[in-house]
Design a protein that fits this description.
mainly alpha
Length: 755
Amino acid sequence: MINKIQKFTDTAYFISALKMTIAAVIPVLLFTYFGAFQTGFTIALGAFFTYPSDIPSSLKDKIKGVTVTALLISGANLLVNIVDPYPWIFYPFLVISVFFVSMFSVFGKRATMVSFSTLLSVSLAFAHIYSGWNMVLHAALLLGGGLFYLFISLLFNYIRPYRYLEIQITECIKLTAKYLKLRGDLWVPTADRKAIIEKQLHLQVELNAIQENIREVLISDYSGSSNQNRRLLIVFISLVEILELALSTSFDHNKLHKKFEEHPQVLLTYQTLAYNLAASLKGLSKSVKNKNKFVSKNNLIQDLNKLELAIANYNTNLGKIEASEGVFMLTTMLQYAEKQVEKIKIVQRAFSSAISTYDFKGRDKDLEKFLTPQYYLWSTLIENLSFSSTLFRHSLRLTVTILFGFIISKALSFHNEYWVLLTIVVIMRPGYGLTKTRSFDRIFGTLIGGGIAFGILFFVHDSIVISSLAIFSMLLGFSFTNTNYKVSATFVTMYIVFIYGILTPNVGEVIQYRIIDTLVGSSLAFLANHFLWPSWEFLNIPIYLKASIKANKNYLTEISIFYNKKGDVATSYRLARKNAFIEIGNLMASFLRMAQEPKSKQKQLPQVYKLAVLNHTLLSSSASLGTYIQSHKTTTASKAFNVVVDAVTKNLDDAILLLKEESINTVENTNKDDLALRFTELKNIRARELKEGIPIDEEAFQLKMQEAQLVIEQLIWLINLSENIVKTTKSLMKSQSENENTILKTFFESNNPAT
């Protein structure tokens, strides 16, 4: 139990909630002591409004972002108070301000959170309308609360500057270990490989998100003079490389099981090694999290030796000629494992001893280029002012829903009209699936939280005990916001009921009004997302597909350039690799959102999933080729290699054109006979060398044969994958076109008086 509590409190979400709770509780306690509870509560509200904008970023960006948010939330509150007495100004102001504040989201993640904070401030401004000097004082106190939160956040950062990074990297190690464990599961003969691959794709979405958070903080604030900074950087880079290596080394498990059917011990030895790779990383993550000295329970070097011995025994038992193909396969597996062990050892060394210059050499080059740039240009906002923009539709939908909610609340004389608006702002998201989930979670949390809190207040009447429970509920409520919204809504409701339990004797009435307001706000948000300019994910899928295919093409192009020119790995290569991994994660995230929508809106779901898997496999195959070329001294790229790569990129270009609903020129496609001739040329070179023998030493011969085999296999695989992508894209766009025609036909028939 103690370990579970410690595990929970040692998370980034809990620490963020703790900062928020401290920034809110201190002003309330301090000013209540001096008999000015309302002043302290207003400052606490300012901290609460500002808190969402404190997202992972550099220290400089954190200060700018939180300060701007504090100014906006106080300014928005002041403007609402100024225009509220004048309906002919107020309603246009409400519509315009809500719409354009919502449109801030076009500028990226931080702008989205600033927008959310400002909308919260606008919603809660209706809780009490001030006039004269009081409204200026109220706005100033909100600003003070926002700046006080910034002070608390900076204080946390000063006391433990690397704590957030340490927590995130520990989580990244754990998720990477989980990914490697899934790779081990693939070696079970009876494994459901389709389900395992789907789990891997979901896990990659999580890994992409956490890696992006780490980049934003680690690289933005990177200083080579700090040993801890260098240590965390080398660990992060090694983790990215471990994941890339895992993705880039795919095996045909069915073929291998069939090949070694009479020698199962070889594959069993490798599977044990694969599991131990994952176990070593998992053990390291636990050790780092618990601040214990890491002692590995697995001897990876011994596992490698066992695999080498198993390969040698296989070679001896079958004879050199008969075992040659199998030895090639097993050697590839062994080399993959050796590279992973090497990278895992680097991570282990970083946490157990001083990092070596060799581990760090050249890895901090052009780091700033790996950050996702944020552009705050008016042109970006103007470009999104159309119905083709998801964010434009969301902003318009949110504006109409808030206006409608406000009018209903006024017309029906709701006790707390602001709570309807607050519910709409908190629940409504651009996507249908998340809005639906949050609507039900919030209703559930409100009912359960209200019931629990009311039950406690029925028996407990001591204000100190109730205040302590309120603080505890606030802390837990904010801790679960990003991980379990149902639990979060439960504790937030309890917190609010406890606060009212201290301030007013009619707590039962408060619960009743809150439930009604939540039901109205949740219903409006849910219905609006379904009927007002809905942003169904199938409309966005082509965008993510294009981005993923283009990123894969750019990555393959960089690999081809590197294979032809040799030398050091260029920054453009590393950037192309990073973008390819990010875009496949974005594509999978889009698919998951689509799967949450109504069945009628899950258009061509199987084809979309197939394209996501094909793109993922293409990335894996490209990365396999790139990793091999980087880590081996390779021969000169042949003309045949370049012809095949050109054919693959041409197929990917065709798929992009199809997604743009443009026709492709099949005449210009690479001649199939020429392509087949190129593969035959590559295969004949290898076959001739195998038959005739080459007068070079055995090790060099083996390396050359391995290169030929791997390159040929990957090129064949890339061609097949790229052709399948074009074929599946054609099918997807054809089905989409047929669906659109059916919808139009139904519309015109229903509006034709003659029918």
